[in-house]
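Troubleshooting: if your tokenizer reports a length mismatch, compare your output against this known-good record of 173 residues.
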Amino acid sequence: TLDAAGTLFVPREAVGVTYARVAARHGIVLDPVATGDRFRSAMRAAPPLAFPGVAPDRRREAERAWWRAVVREAFQADVRQLGFEASFDALWVHFARPEAWTLDEDALDTLRALRAARLRLAIVSNFDRRLVELLAGLGITPLVDAVVPSAAHDAAKPDPRLFQAAARLVAGV
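Known-good structure output:
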């Protein structure tokens, strides 16, 4: 198993810079460095990106709510703040696009080498369901057997249940 963000790819620009640029389009002024610091703090403090007990048809809504809370902390904003929802929506779309990310320079070659060695591979990541399309857009999907975002399951890393789900998918069970 391999992780996704921070291992195979990283944001094209610092998160604080992206947040400040997008927020400015909606009338919110943010300091990129402070916003990036608040983002990292919000990510560390956030509950796991998994939704046990939430019906599968409600998980996308739960994912957006999870991210909205993180972005709100990074912005230090009240959700009623003028421009926040438009900023959040734009960021949600932005980070779903492959163009928002940069592949590690060795990622594709490493995955190809692992495939050539006939290894079964899964991406296991504390990420939302946008990961599946994002990996496809980055050219990673054909090189792995399964993509297992935590938000699509009842557990987040390091919970072994997420890795067990990956093992089942890779084994075709």
